[in-house]
Amino acid sequence: MELSEEELRLLEQMERALVEEDPKFASTLRGTSFQRAARRRMVLGGGILLVGVGALIGAVLLGDNPLVRTGLGVLGFVVMLGGAILALTSSRHPGQSAPKVRASGKSGFGVVDGGRQHRPGRAGRQRSSAPFMERMEERWRRRRERGV
């Protein structure tokens, strides 16, 4: 089902207003440049990682001189590590390099200020310090007394 000319015009007007109001959000919805650049960095990082693995294999195979073997091995490892870091960090947003620190001082991800802090419906209930088996036996005794 196609949209009418008036609906298309309204849709374009809403899109322009969104881009003017919040261009970053609009580009996120489109998923254009950031995803393409992240994919490019990930592929580049994978290629660099393979070059580093090749240098490590070359160090093992061309190992007549210990100095050459050690130097090529260290170089291969550093290149491989750099490629892996580039590939693994390419999908993060520029501002998401580390987990945010909440007001409580704990780090981590969450919805709003770390998400919910307690289970609903259990407010005021304290956790027993008794061992697990003792708590289970007590629950069993209460059930038998109630006849359930």
UniProtKB/TrEMBL annotation:
Record flagged with keyword Zinc: no
One Pfam family in the UniProt entry: DUF3040
Spans through the membrane: 42-62, 68-88
Region (Disordered): 92-148
Residue ranges, compositional bias (Basic and acidic residues): 134-148
Keywords tagged on the record: Membrane, Transmembrane, Transmembrane helix
Lineage top rank: taxon: Bacteria
Protein name, UniProt field: DUF3040 domain-containing protein
